[in-house]
Amino acid sequence: MQLIRHALIYTGAEEGRIIHNGAVAIDGAFIKEVGEDSVLAARYPEAEALDAGGKLCMPGLINAHEHIYSEFARGCAFPGGPSHGFLDVLEKVWWPLDRALSKEDIYYSALCAYIECIKNGVTTVIDHHAGYGAIEGSLSEIAKAADQTGVRTCLCCEVSDRDGFSKCRKAIDENASFIEETARKNSSMQKALFGLHASFTLSEETLQAVRRANESGAGYHVHIAEGAYDEKDCEEKYGCSIVERFEKEGILGPSTIAAHCIHISEKDMGILKDTDTMVVHNPESNMNNAVGSPNVLAMYDRGITLGLGTDGYGQDMLRSMQTAAILQKYRHGEPARGTGEAESLLFSGNPEIVRRIFGVSAGNLKEGAAADIILMNYAPFTPLNENTVESHLLFGLTGALTDTVLINGRLVMQGRKVLTVDEEAIDREARKLAEGLWQRIR
Question: Which residue in 274, 311, 316, 345 has the fewest CB atoms around it within 10 Å?
């Protein structure tokens, strides 16, 4: 039994409680009780104490759409020159990068990404991998990095026609193999989805092959209408929207993540709602790629399950939430909207996505929830209570304030020091690998 003591507690959106001088009792991998410090200290006198020293205690954060493979792109001078349009970004940056990745690159990129997640208070990552230079066994390399760092993760491998039938088939097989592997392990720490790129790189024949390979009926993780080109291509080839196409193909549903959903119609939103498909918004990436801004408020008002991700644009989910809020205000010209909705994506939508995929309660501090907990170096100079916590989340907190992290009851960082791996040694090796990767891309 562990007991986090002397904490300023925010329980998460489900209960929304603020407890001054609170405590969290942890029994193994799960939260036993949350309450007043004096009460829990008396109730659990034999528990191993972790003194929070007044730090803000919150649920571990969740990234619902990430691209771990992109870590080594940081600083790389890609040879194609400036990109003009989203398809150009794919052809000049991301596809050359993933074609050049080796298995060792993938493993160390994952280690670096998971370390950054921990240091930003992110305890669960739902990743969408692309690495057409080394497909077979790639997900096991990422899974190994997740095991070593201690991060809860869900993985998939991107299926695409863009590099021909052979590699497409290998990506299909990689998904099927890893789905079977995670099913055998039956662990709440690692799960799998079936990864698909986007409609414009997925032929009817490929989707048929995917359905045949997906014998377990796993959910899918797919990009939908991220760029206007994707939607236009689908209309021209198939005479329908991407959402309509994927509904016909059996891709949508309550276990499927549809990332982005920028260029979709009201009718498409109705289909996403009716199929109970999960949609993940990635505001910083969308802005960086100049692909547009989804109508998050309209989807929110329809009751679509909405989560939040970074799409490879860093690991700070609090910054992503803050960007989501101001982006919707800007898009709609409505300062009264966006704030509560953005908080809901991170603290309500993402926990619901984790519940569906992992089968555990996470993203809230309550009895029976996974003990994914972070302590933040945040001493507010204005009152923090149930009425003001939203403002503190949006204007006061950043991932870099994370001091201590527990995942599944395991202490993985304390005093900003990652305890599960040798961060300095990993960084040294990663720099060598990144330099080699950049040379191959050039």
Answer: 274
CB 241 within 8 A of CB 199: no
- Provide the pLDDT for residue 82: 77
CA distance linking residue 131 with residue 414, whole number of Å: 33
- Determine the Cα–Cα distance for residues 170 and 436; give it in Å rounded to an integer: 25
Q: What distance in Å separates the CA atoms of residue 157 and residue 175, rounded to the nearest whole number?
A: 6
DSSP code of residue 70: G
Query: pLDDT (tens digit, 9 = 90+) per residue, 44-90?
Result: 999 999 999 999 999 999 999 999 999 999 998 888 777 788 888 89
**Which residue, 166, 179, 107, 155, is CA-closest to 132?**
166
Q: How far apart are CA 281 and CA 266, in angstroms?
A: 17
Strand order in the sheet with 152-155: 61-66, 122-127, 152-155, 190-192
- The pLDDT of residue 84 is 84
Q: Answer for the pair 110, 68: CB distance below 8 angstroms, yes or no.
A: yes
The count of other CB atoms within 10 Å of the CB of residue 204 is 11
Strand partners, 134: none
**CA-wise closest residue to 320 among 282, 365, 374, 362:** 282
Q: What's the confidence (pLDDT) of residue 80?
A: 79
Distance CA 76, CA 97 (A): 10
Helix (H) or strand (E) holding 273: helix 266-274
Low-confidence ranges of the chain (pLDDT < 70): none
